Amino acid sequence: MIVIPAVDIKNGKCVRLLQGRMDAETVFSDDPAAMAKQWEDEGAEIIHVIDLDGAFEKSPRNLISIKKILEAIKVDIQVGGGIRNEETVRMFLDIGVKRVIIGTEAIRNPQLVKDACKAFPGQVVVGIDALHGRVAIEGWAETTEVMAADLAKQFEDCGVAAINFTDIHRDGMQTGPNIEETKKLAEAISIPVIASGGVSTIEDIKNLMPLEAAGVSGVITGRALYSGTLNLKEAIAISKQGLA
Fold first, then answer.
1. Percentage of the chain surpassing pLDDT 70?
2. How far apart are CA 59 and CA 54, in angstroms?
3. Using alpha carbons only, what angle is made at residue 130 by residues 129 and 134, rounded to the nearest 5 degrees?
4. C-alpha dihedral sign at 140, 144, 145, 150
5. pLDDT tier at 233, thresholds 50, 70, 90
6. Exposed e or buried b for every residue in 92-127, given b needs 16+ CB within 10 A?
7. Catalytic positions, please?
8. Which domains, and CATH codes, for the chain?
9. Could you give the 3-state DSSP secondary structure of residue 130?
């Protein structure tokens, strides 16, 4: 299982939100590229970068910061937030982003995901953010009646690299990941699932590791790294033991 540090960008700064609320932010750094470099130095193999302004404003808003991250590090990054058309997907891949995350448009326009997967095989991730099992969109501002597993099943066999599954209720709260919902989703599909939301300590990493057998291939963590309750080097070391 791979441990993926998150760099969330708002107004050019590295922040974390509580439950996705734009009015509940903590600024951790004025330099997202420096944070990404720190996580690379501590062993990260890929960095999860979210343009929070882009998620709410429906198109990328922190492109300068993302380009600086690409210049500062050698490891891959995946980017989400405001990706609503194939042109934006292509733009990010052209500047060196490894994978793009399509969230809101996956439910509004599933054909975009399928077309992007065909055009850019292995480089498209679907971001499914759920509250009590129901998919939330528009930067989590709107909750739909669609169940997370039902949405994910639409993308079987079209070449999606992974499903990023976030439990909004737990995101940024450091209350532990939603093991049950994550396992349920992973067992319902053949696409690899990356867990997100609620990771607080090394115990949370250990609790997620048995889910590898169900298809959970990674875990994204943010606030726990920034607040110091989780050590990235230790988390990576523990996660790799599952491969031994």
1. 95
2. 5
3. 135
4. negative
5. very high
6. bbeeebbbbbbbbbbbeebebbbbbbeebeebbbbb
7. 8, 129
8. 2-241 (3.20.20.70)
9. strand
